[in-house]
Amino acid sequence: MDKRKLRKIYREISKEEISLKKAQEEIDEFIEVIQEAILIDGKIKFKEIGTFEILKRHSRIIANPVTKEPMKIYPKKTIKFRVSKNLKNN
């Protein structure tokens, strides 16, 4: 689902009549709040929905598939989302 579909759904389930632009602004604001909270705490739990958390990938050395030369992959952080059991069962 892309943002265009998401804002249409958000607009439909909203209690008050809002424009598509206002719906997009509210969605963007929510995403920013989620990003800030993950950076501060490293983990966000939504009961009934799931958990967002930061994973740290360590550096490692692999072989380049074409030249077979060793390459170093640098460490990085990724965000993982685990779905709650309630949402899995539906």
From TrEMBL:
- Record's Pfam families? Bac_DNA_binding
Q: What is a biological process (GO) this protein takes part in? A: chromosome condensation
Write out the coiled-coil annotation as residue ranges: 6-40
Return the InterPro entries for the record. Hist_DNA-bd, IHF-like_DNA-bd_dom_sf
A single GO molecular function term of this UniProt record: DNA binding
| One GO location term (cellular component) | cytosol
Q: Which UniProt keywords apply?
A: Coiled coil, DNA condensation, DNA-binding
Return the PANTHER family for the record: DNA-BINDING PROTEIN HU, DNA-BINDING PROTEIN HU-BETA
Record-stated family: Belongs to the bacterial histone-like protein family.
Query: What name does UniProt use for this protein?
Result: HBbu
Q: What are the top taxonomic ranks of the organism?
A: Bacteria, Fusobacteriati, Fusobacteriota, Fusobacteriia, Fusobacteriales
- Gene name of the encoded protein: hup_11
